[in-house]
From TrEMBL:
<protein>
    <recommendedName>
        <fullName>Probable magnesium transporter</fullName>
    </recommendedName>
</protein>
<keyword id="KW-0460">Magnesium</keyword>
<keyword id="KW-0813">Transport</keyword>
<dbReference type="Pfam" id="PF05653">
    <property type="entry name" value="Mg_trans_NIPA"/>
</dbReference>
<feature type="transmembrane region" description="Helical">
    <location>
        <begin position="115"/>
        <end position="134"/>
    </location>
</feature>
<keyword id="KW-0406">Ion transport</keyword>
<feature type="transmembrane region" description="Helical">
    <location>
        <begin position="16"/>
        <end position="35"/>
    </location>
</feature>
<comment type="similarity">
    <text>Belongs to the NIPA (TC 2.A.7) family.</text>
</comment>
<comment type="function">
    <text>Acts as a Mg(2+) transporter. Can also transport other divalent cations such as Fe(2+), Sr(2+), Ba(2+), Mn(2+) and Co(2+) but to a much less extent than Mg(2+).</text>
</comment>
<dbReference type="InterPro" id="IPR008521">
    <property type="entry name" value="Mg_trans_NIPA"/>
</dbReference>
<feature type="transmembrane region" description="Helical">
    <location>
        <begin position="154"/>
        <end position="171"/>
    </location>
</feature>
<dbReference type="GO" id="GO:0005886">
    <property type="term" value="C:plasma membrane"/>
</dbReference>
<feature type="transmembrane region" description="Helical">
    <location>
        <begin position="251"/>
        <end position="272"/>
    </location>
</feature>
<dbReference type="GO" id="GO:0015095">
    <property type="term" value="F:magnesium ion transmembrane transporter activity"/>
</dbReference>
<keyword id="KW-1003">Cell membrane</keyword>
<keyword id="KW-0472">Membrane</keyword>
<dbReference type="InterPro" id="IPR037185">
    <property type="entry name" value="EmrE-like"/>
</dbReference>
Length: 354
């Protein structure tokens, strides 16, 4: 009886540690979006913006503060999984959306409309439903075992499709629609993100096994997974910076979270065959979750505030403006359409605009 009670108390303490770490992770990650956005704005004033292909943000301290903050958040999230189950930790990642939206409202003055709040809620609810009903993951025991899972036909098809779609988005859609359609940049980030998680998991298992005394550095698969991880992470960062520099932070954060979570769960289920043996109710719940996310992203996208136009050295004049025109020695006020009257030989003087 005493042993059972002690185990129960220990499990509660572990869950509490995981909960605190997961909440802290969300706070850090949510704040990192704001720091990076501020850094991107400052870099855009001094040179080419990230959205236009510039990399001046690499010299901006605020952007690096955002990067460090995000890394701290990701480390806290990783450690949280050690103490608490994924069912508890993963849904708490949605808190980063709320943190980001609230900070953007007060710090970046990016207003979130009432329907935008509803879109955020739908994204959070949909992602939470998917995570809570996601199949349990079977943890591989070696890098070689993960390599077999990664080279099975089903996952090779997913990886090939993800890379093909990403290349279309990068080469065709990004130059044409990247600055007007938020789904282009975030689609690239999310697709590569799902592959990042799979490769990072392999690297993590290799490090864990090596620490336990089973050296995995001698396997070529370990280094392949490491190179894939680095390549995917760099690509994600480039296009996430483009998205943050181009679109409203309060919209980027929830859409990216929803897409990334959905695709990662899909990739994990394909690679680890977790959907086999699932009940019909769980599958139905996941489908409902996807529909909810789709609804949320649609609402967010349709209610996004238009981005302010670039600064210019002049302010366009209203078509209703009255012009003071001096003609034949007489002063008078005329509307724009009267300027073409042949009765006047006019000289328009800028300081006479009314």
């Amino acid at each position: 009886m005493g042993s059972s009670s002690a185990n129960g108390g220990s499990a509660f303490e572990d869950n509490l540690k995981g909960f605190i770490l997961a909440v802290a992770s969300s706070a850090f990650i949510g704040a990192s979006f704001i720091f990076k956005k501020k850094g991107l704005k400052r870099a855009g004033v001094a040179g080419a913006r990230a959205g236009a292909g510039g990399y001046g943000y690499l010299l901006e301290p605020l952007w690096w503060i955002g990067m460090i903050t995000m890394i701290v958040g990701e480390i806290a999230n990783f450690v949280a999984y050690i103490f608490a189950p994924a069912v508890l930790v993963t849904p708490l990642g949605a808190l980063s959306i709320i943190v980001s939206a609230v900070l953007a409202h007060f710090i970046l003055r990016e207003k979130l409309q009432k329907m935008g709040v509803l879109g955020c809620i739908l994204c959070i609810v949909g992602s939470t439903v998917i995570v809570l009903h996601a199949p349990e993951e079977r943890t591989p025991e070696s890098v070689e075992q993960i390599w077999k899972l990664a080279t099975q036909p089903a996952f090779l098809f997913y990886a090939s499709a993800a890379i093909a779609v990403s290349l279309v988005l990068i080469l065709h859609c990004s130059p044409r629609y990247g600055t007007t359609n938020i789904m282009v940049y975030l689609g690239i980030c999310s697709l590569f993100g799902s592959l990042t998680v799979m490769s990072i998991k392999a690297v993590g298992i290799a490090i864990k096994l090596t620490i336990e005394g089973f050296n995995q550095a001698g396997y070529i698969q370990t280094w392949v997974f490491a190179m894939v991880s680095v390549s995917c992470i760099i690509t994600q960062l480039i296009y996430l910076n483009k998205a943050l520099d181009t679109f409203n932070t309060a919209v980027v954060s929830p859409i990216y979270y929803a897409m990334f979570t959905s695709l990662t769960i899909l990739a994990s289920a394909i690679m680890f065959k977790d959907w086999s043996g699932q009940s019909a109710s769980s599958i139905a719940s996941e489908i409902c979750g996807f529909i909810t996310i789709l609804s949320g992203t649609t609402v967010l996208h349709s209610t996004r505030e238009p981005d302010p136009p670039p600064n210019t050295d002049y302010t366009p004049l209203s078509p209703k403006i009255f012009w003071r025109i001096q003609g034949n020695g007489e002063m008078g006020k005329h509307k724009e359409e009267d300027l073409l009257s042949p009765e006047f030989v006019t000289v328009v003087r800028q300081d006479y605009f009314a």
